[in-house]
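Task: encode each sequence below as structure tokens.

Item 1
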Amino acid sequence: MDLRVAFDSVSKKFRRGERHDSLRDLVPAMAAAFLNRRRSSETLGDQEFWALRNVSFAVRAGEALGIIGPNGAGKSTSLKVLTKLLRPTTGSCMVHGRVGALIEVAAGFHPDLSGRENIYLQGAIMGMKRAEIAQRFDDIVDFAGVNAFVDTPVKRYSSGMNARLGFSIAAHLMPDVLIIDEVLSVGDMAFQQRCFDRMVEFKKQGIAIVLVSHNLQAVSRLCETAVYLASSVKASGPTIDVLDAYVRDSNKLEPTVDDGAIELRSIAFVSDGGPATTHRDVAPGAALKLRMEARSAHPQDDVTFGFEIYRSTDQLLVYNGHVHRPELGSPDDFNGEFHLDLAFRANLVRGHYYISFCILHNPTQAYLVQPRQVGTLAVAETRSRSGVADVDFSAALSLPVGTPARR
């Protein structure tokens, strides 16, 4: 496949507090800038810091790459380098073909121009002829849902309207590469679903996508590969592996307490005919089972097994289930090799979740196995829902007998 995006060992540094309010401040700053030009680009000067450090990735036609990481990790900076709003300090980047980009809400819009005028302006910037833009104009406006306000200055638009129009322009002007920053976190659920569906169509058409998002479930579903940034690359490769690394770091879960009481050998999802894995893509309500294999160094009696589910995006605790050992119908104590099956249903709305597990010694309230992430799951849906629980919602409409049909 054709290489559409190449980010090769890119670094970008900035200077903190670069403001000059007086001639007294400006003259030393100019002298420092002159001296800095002679300094190696690999060296940090006073008050400088690396926003990106030796970052590399590539995207081919028909592929989607997700970029994830905490706030201030350099995600938006990398997109600005890709779209040539910023020049890298070292390294190089290449984007081949026409680029559709939405890297900030209303980025590139002229606030005093109307939505209509900004559509034509953005198309011209992308190198399109007026006739080409006019041909797609109605589709752009309909997708964005701003028909009633298309002749209103965009400075009067809400952030959601700006985001809808910005994505619609980027998505309808036939890009070869689509670069998107957090569009799936702005706007209502219906619009977010339309955006997602549109990007799935783009992949089928051979368009390359670079997506920055905190919506881990969307990244999991859309992107084959991902990069976890924290100025430098913390993890890259298959999306599932990168998401797991990011969730582990985000929640700072402690490793197992190594006091020899209980040794965890393995823990993974198990299913008939399927390989054991610590990640599952599932439908709402799917029946799941985690199997833990372990060894107890000496008999255990009064212990509790803890099981919790968190939403990865905001670490919201969505389920907390603890099982006391006598509830399991086991002997008074257990010793040596054993396994524990944790069965549950994913009655959750769409999202990315992680599972935490622990073993608590009740008399001393000490952890024999410290709370730790043991698995992740991405819940998919055919329609967008918000909230946490999947309540199997449906609606039915009926009319009284004899009610005339509306014409």
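Item 2
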Amino acid sequence: MAANSHALLSASSAHRWLNCTPSARLTEAMDDITSKFAKEGTDAHALCEYKLNSLLGIEEEYPELEYYSNEMEECANGYVAYISEVYEELKQANAHPVVLVETRLDFSKYVPDGFGTGDALIASEGTLNIIDYKHGKGVEVSAIDNPQMKLYALGALELFDCLYDINKIVMTIYQPRLSNISTYEITKDDLLKWANDELIPKAQQAFKGEGNLSCGAWCKFCKLKATCQERARVNLELAKYEFLEASLLKDDDIADILKKADDFTSWISDVKEYALSEALKGVKYPGFKVVEGKANRKYTDEEAVANEVKKLGVDPYDHKLKSITEMTKLLGKEKFKVLDGYITKPHGKPTLVPDTDKRPEYNSAALDFENIEIGDN
């Protein structure tokens, strides 16, 4: 791999630089912030790579895993089992599949200096499978029209298009902690059309740092999310309601605010987090200072505390039934079935969401009917 292991226009950040083309150059010199969750994800990928290579008969040393857990083990096993299943289906169809693990993919034909790493590729006659492992459980990732996956597909085509007669690409996000296996199919012709018509022009703009700043969902992982003037401008549009002459908001006004409320709250949180980190470095913001927050008392030695309380003849522990999730882990899914008759799921609290949400619309009348108890006549 090249000395620079991170591409300016990386596949993982494609959602951002395709929508906000100047952002790549604006954040180029900014340091990456590595979180515990990112490190955990790196460990999970390393374990997945080791297990998949072992299945393929490739010997390598067991990786050093700082965040290893039983859950991570189960996730990796499921990932390998899924890939094995896809491989076997292609093998049974005499498609002569071949599997590549953690493969460098070069898509610089379409994106200047563009490259990335594909978690798992299965090339076969007619079909190219791109499988990407996601360990996170904060946000469900969809494979549908996913630009990161499409860039991986373009890089994989460069490797395999001369060896197989590929006409279909199947892209899959495997996200076990959210029980999410998202799959999207695209023809090779449609992928190349997207690459030529949309990707290349925007990638050239992004590489040059040209184009207009644009605010949207892609801001979430941008290093400029707290200081971007465009994001501030878009969110501060809510301030227009302060100058309305009427004393009451109209329904359309409320709907407009609701559409922007989550983004506004997220932006405010990002600004506050950034300001605190800068203030701790010595930056002075007019009218603000850093103070020590409230803290709760805690035991320095829980075992010693428990022993002292027991000497007094008092039980120091709270005893309660394990939660459903903990009980499932304790018993396993099969044994847990004996409790099926004791499990109920109450209706969730009504929540206002955009009409694009996949859940059915709340029907209070139907729920009231469900709760009616019919007695004997």
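Check on item 2: The mean pLDDT is 89. The chain has three domains: 14-208, 225-280, 302-342.
End of task.
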